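Lecture 7 notes: from sequence to structure.
We start with the chain below.
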Amino acid sequence: MSVDHSHTAFIVVDSQAGALDNPFWGTARSNPSYEANIVKLLKAFRSLQGEDGPRILHGPAGPHIVHVYHRSLNPASPLHSTSPGMSFHELSHPAAHETVFPKTTNSAFQGSDLGEYLRAKTCWKIYFAGLSVDLCLGTTVRHASDLDVGKHVDEKGETVPGQLMLIEDATAAWAKHGGKYDADTVHGVSVESLKGEFCRVVTTEDVLKELGIHEGEVLEM
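Predicted structure tokens for the same chain:
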């Protein structure tokens, strides 16, 4: 039996070349599986869509895939508009039909139409991934919670909060203050600070199970 994923969104924040291929934030990074998991998740969500996006001609609708990129105002940043690093990383480049939002602040909801987009598409089950968990991704999740993103009326006619999920192994962090706080510590503390208070924390494997996809199927895609 097919599952309706039309109320589901997968949001990838700042998965850009300048963040992953440039030592601007340092060389000590957490989660070496980040790239592999982002690829795996994109394949999984895309497998539930039609060739031209979420609408499937026969059967339930697929999920929405959204990419957010940072357009830094700092000329020295590899994410500045004059830098080739502002482009999406080749491993997580948006497909032609996928929605893209730029931002200049830490939150993807600040000064963008992302919130309006999710409301218009009636998305209330939202998975977040990308970079970095202590900065832009974490800020975006917090802001989504404060804005009540995903609040909707359920089948019983009751107003209920949205389901916000942070995919903890599809994000990363860099060491701080010359290594005083190592990357794994920054990552772990940032995730724990979000868990429960702002979102539910899940793994890539959890997401595949919730989508009804076996990991072996993703590897074959």
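Points to note: The helical segments are 17-20, 34-47, 114-120, 136-146, 183-194, 204-211, 215-219. The mean pLDDT is 93.
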